[in-house]
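Cross-check.
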Amino acid sequence: MRIDIITCFPEMFSSFFSYSIVRRAINSKKININIHNLRDYTLDKHKKIDDYAYGGSPGLVMMIEPIDRCIAAIKVDNDCQEVIYMAPDGEILTQSLSNELSLKDNIIILCGHYKGVDERVRTNLVTREVSIGDYVLSGGEIPACVLIDSIVRLIPGVLSNEVSALDDSFQDGFVAPPVYTRPREYKGMQVPDVLLSGDKKKIDKWLFEQSVERTKKRRPSLI
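Predicted model, tokenized:
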């Protein structure tokens, strides 16, 4: 899978891509991540990529020209399937959306900043807008990291145990059940006996019941 990221702050990704699952995916060549500094695509001698909003609204707006140039340059050797803009008012990121995007071969992620991007970018250059929640951050870099992490871990061969991703919360429409590990007893707190019974049918039944009950309490809208 190839992921191209358009940002005006490329250095924000260096630490994120150096650890954990994403690093493993890069090293194993399961994913190819390319970071594009938007300032490299402006014709302004001062590397300016934003300007004041028409109409007198406060804040700076990212201009369409450098974004268009960058996307066009990426598409020269990339049959891009999605151009995703990380927007607070976009489609809420869900597990099903992550599943869908993990099946793509090539995606572009555009990180906004300041007051956002020129509306013509959203209506003409972007194919999808994604939000990680109903709140506003300083830019789209952190949301982009969240999106990438949620996608990459679903790619076959990235996780050491591929079945693990299938047990994640929301994969089957429910929140994941509680999990336990050693020691069996700690300061009077016990692991449920059913998990130690060795009876797979009983264990599966208990896990499903716990998953449903936890979903009712924590995410009732899913029921």
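The chain has two domains: 2-152, 167-222. The radius of gyration is 22 Å. Passed to J.P. for a second look.
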